[in-house]
Structures are given as C-alpha cells and as structure tokens.
Design goal:
With 98 residues, this protein is mainly alpha-helical. It is 78% helix and 0% strand. The protein has one domain.
Length: 98
C-alpha cells in the first residue's frame, strides 16, 4: 500500500520546515543545552529532525484519519528521509559550522 499524495506531501513539508535556517538554529541551541552529554551536534540534530518527522506523521494521520499510520506509511516516511538524507546532512553541516 502506497502512501497517499497528501500524506507524502506533508512528510516532505515537515522535512522542508525542519531544514529552514532558523529552525536548524533553534534545534542547535536546544541540543547545545545538553553539552557535554551530546558527542555529535550534527548527529543529534539529524536525530531530532527524524523524530520530528516521525511524530508529525503519527499526529497528522491521527488527526486526519483517526488511526495510527500503517507500517507501509511509516516505511515510506522513512524512505523519504533516506532519499533526502544527503540534503539533510548537508544543511545540518552548514548550520553546525557557523
């Protein structure tokens, strides 16, 4: 079962929003508040974005369809992240080297 276009577009939008410079800077400040526990700021920011996409997918499906995402929808959400992983890493790198 393939993710419907509206849901796929929402996942893409959450990623796009999470990659905005001001949002990345907010995430960076948040993550820095956990120093010295965080060993890699970039890895923590990547995990933060993945978590944001995952929880957003759950809330969106719950609000729109009154159910949890199917395993296929979750899988496709993570495939979207994997497809955009290089772009995500690149923008996080830029944000962490300022």
């Amino acid at each position: 079962m393939e993710m419907e276009p509206t849901l796929r577009g929402y996942v893409e939008k959450v990623i796009d929003e999470g990659l905005k410079p001001d949002v990345l800077e907010d995430a960076r400040r948040f993550i820095r508040s956990f120093e010295p526990l965080v060993k890699s700021e970039a890895d923590a920011m990547f995990g933060h974005l993945i978590g944001t996409v995952r929880i957003s997918l759950f809330y969106y499906v719950l609000a729109l369809y009154h159910r949890t995402p199917t395993p296929d929808e979750i899988s496709e959400g993570f495939e979207t992240i994997n497809r955009r992983a290089q772009e995500i890493r690149s923008k996080i790198f830029v944000a962490t080297t300022k």
